[in-house]
Amino acid sequence: MTQATPRGPIRTAYDLPEPTYDADLVLVGRGTPGGELFRRYWQPVALAAEVGDIPVAIRVLGEDLILFKEPGGKFGLMHPRCTHRGTSLFFGKVEAGGIRCCYHGWKFDTEGRCVEQPCEKDGGKAKDRIRQPWYPVREQYGLIFAYMGPLDRMPELPRYDTLEDVPEDHRLVADDKSIGSGGPYEMPCNWLQTHENVMDGYHVPILHGSFSGPQFNEMMGIMPETEWTNYDYSVTETKVRHLDDGRKLTRILEVIVPNIRIVADPGLQRMGRADNVSWTVPIDDTNTKIFTVMNLHNDVPAPRQGMRKMYGGKTWFELDEEGHQRYPGDYEAQVSQGTITWHSEEHLAGSDRGVVMLRRLLRHNIEVVKQGGDPVLAGCGASPTITVKACNKLEGID
């Protein structure tokens, strides 16, 4: 599909033109403009604790891969089709130093080098010329990150100050099943229509407040005064709510290029700087998964998918079809747009300014990559530590 173009008014649905979407923003396959932007950043692909000596099948940015951990502690990420005869390494044997194909025993180290060919004379005199397609991986914050772009442009893996400052009475919790607004954290829709929701603060008092009842905190049902700020690598949304008792609630939310989102506790149980960082990871063009790392006090249990009863006294997973109609949340609002929303049919308004700013920032960095440059935060050199701006602040009466 091509770039969305303006259209005139219609009289009935019969007059609707053929819809389009902004392909540069939504498509993530190798060689697409958006896909090449994503491939210039490290992306979380799995929880480290869930990867062991049995290969794990994963799909990310439209590519099917296998992930494993050899006994020495190194992780390997490879295309599953063995470079010998095509048998899937999903059925391979993980052993010290790498993984061995089940068909003829060719063994590859964690960077894809062929180190053994047991059926060949002298163990395979030409094995050094063989390499299984692979990607670099790193473990950080309990997640496995992969870099899927050109090796000569590989940046260092960035760090986040809110996850670096871990007091003795806190711990980091990595999760791919956090409850968010109560629904699934794998969504059958394009990554952008769920990611840009963070810059759409006006939906909170409507969708999560008056329409479905207070799903977070009653204070969140107040219509906020909102400002958005554009930085070189991020967009922030500052929402101010004036409470009846004279207090003022200020919330700052943040998105960082290309797919990081940082949201302070929407239940307002924790004030101060946001204690989490999340990544909106495209599985492919029409499926998305969220990874989150939380810096939690030891007394605070990690939130889990489906535990919060936010929908008329039920969890999202307990609702029947009528229940989802009566108590829609982010999942219903975003997935019902379609697997990839039609941008040509949108009518953006003033309350969508944050969404527009995010798209503009993404387009700018996509163009930088097209021109052969390095997008923000992805240049080679020292590992950046990103200062988190997202926070909750309650001021006024003590």
Beta-sheet strand percentage?
25-35%
Average pLDDT, all residues: 89
Tally of DSSP helical segments: 8
Instruction: Bin the helical content.
Output: 10-25%
Structural class: alpha+beta
- Residue stretches low in confidence (pLDDT < 50, at least 5 long) are none
- The N- and C-terminal alpha carbons lie at a distance of 55 Å
Structure description:
With 398 residues, the protein is an alpha+beta fold. Helices cover 15% and strands 27% of the residues. The chain contains eight helices and 23 strands. It has helices spanning 23-26, 33-38, 161-164, 191-195, 203-211, 321-326, 330-335, 353-370; strands at residues 43-47, 56-60, 63-69, 75-78, 93-95, 98-100, 107-108, 114-116, 134-135, 137-140, 143-146, 159-160, 170-175, 186-187, 225-230, 234-242, 248-256, 260-262, 272-273, 276-284, 287-297, 385-386, 391-395. The strands form five sheets. Strands 13, 14, 15, 16, 17, 18, 19, 20, 21 and 23 form a ten-stranded antiparallel sheet that branches. Strand 20 (276-284) and strand 21 form a beta hairpin. It is globular. The mean pLDDT is 89.
